[in-house]
Write a structure and sequence with these properties.
Elements lengths: L45 H7 L15 H11 L4 H11 L5 H10 L5 H12 L2 H14 L3 H9 L7 H11 L4 H13 L6 H6 L2 E32 L2 E29 L1 H15 L10 H23 L7
Antiparallel strand pairs: 1-2
Helix pairs in contact: 2-3, 2-4, 5-6, 6-7, 6-8, 6-9, 8-9, 9-11
Length: 321
């Protein structure tokens, strides 16, 4: 797979914008180099680790040290109409605080009613950075659009580094649907730091190898002639019905094997990118369209100087001794 996360484009190299000492300004986007991480490495959340291991929704394993039976029991009690059992279910829910526990209780709630799922999401929202990472994963990967939206509503703004790390992993995914949903979420939670990744993830190019009758081109002349005569008889009459044949003179070019590149556009990523870039820079970016070169030039030559100026203004003035 060809990845757009390495910007193989020809751009003029200019010196990076100056920045005050001790103030971090994102690096430039360079050709043939991967997009830098939007946050310092915080380690992948458990949810992301399980997803990268290709655990599906039906056979996702429960992490070691977490009782799947206890998670199911907690969900069953939460679903009980009896107040005493429901309160016991709430008490059990509060014990699932580790990332492993969060995964177990989330996985156990997949088949539960909507109100139970909302209580699980509220529980994750109360668990600080690790819960924010779990909510981000759910807001991207859950199959239920309503659950994804509810999870996104509970993500803090601006998003934490843990949430951004999960978002970054999804934006680098080879799965187009995952990337598009991550792009939509970036706009929803105001993930300004993800702008470089959004620029690169607007579309992807995948090589396709196909062997079949793909196309043909004929260049020639078609001539008609009488190929046969069919006798027709009647009362005191006779005749012939001609059968017309066709002769082709020329050449035919047939294509039965080709290696092509398919470009997949991700509108969710593109829309969020335009909204975030316009909001943070204060300048419309609609004119950049889907042009990757134009976006990279805008980022390096327009956006980074804006960030550098902000950093300079935020730097405290030191009085001479």
């Amino acid at each position: 797979m060809l990845t757009t996360l390495a910007l193989a484009i020809g751009l003029m190299t200019a010196p990076p914008p100056s920045s005050p000492v001790g103030v971090a300004v994102p690096p430039r986007l360079e050709q043939n180099k991967p997009i830098p991480a939007c946050v310092p490495s915080t380690g992948a959340s458990l949810f992301s680790t399980l997803h990268q291991a290709k655990a599906t929704e039906k056979d996702a394993p429960t992490p070691a040290g977490v009782s799947d039976a206890e998670a199911r029991k907690a969900i069953q009690r939460l679903s009980s109409p009896k107040p005493a059992l429901h309160e016991d279910g709430l008490r059990m829910l509060r014990t699932f605080t580790t990332p492993e526990g969060q995964w177990a209780i989330y996985h156990a709630s997949r088949g539960a009613d909507g109100p139970i799922k909302m209580q699980v999401l509220e529980h994750l929202a109360s668990l600080g950075p690790s819960g924010q990472a779990g909510l981000t994963w759910i807001a991207i990967h859950d199959r239920d659009a309503a659950v994804r939206n509810e999870a996104a509503q509970r993500i803090e703004q601006p998003p934490s580094n843990e949430a951004l790390a999960v978002l970054e992993g999804a934006l680098r995914s080879p799965n187009h649907m995952v990337v598009n949903q991550a792009g939509l979420l970036a706009g929803q939670i105001n993930a300004i730091k993800a702008i470089p990744l959004l620029i690169a993830a607007q579309f992807a190019q995948d090589p396709v190898q196909d062997q079949a009758d793909l196309a043909w081109i004929a260049i020639g002349t078609q001539r008609s002639y009488v190929a046969n005569l069919i006798p027709i008889t009647g009362n005191s009459s006779a005749g012939f019905q001609p059968v017309i044949g066709q002769i082709y003179e020329g050449v035919v070019m047939a294509i039965d094997d080709a290696a092509a590149v398919v470009t997949t556009y991700r509108p969710g990523v593109h829309q969020s990118l335009m909204a975030l870039a316009t909001l943070d820079s204060g300048q419309s970016t609609a004119h950049l369209g889907w042009d990757l070169n134009a976006w990279v030039a805008w980022y390096n030559d327009t956006y980074l100087p804006i960030l550098a100026a902000r950093a300079a203004e935020a730097e405290p003035v030191r009085e001479p001794k």
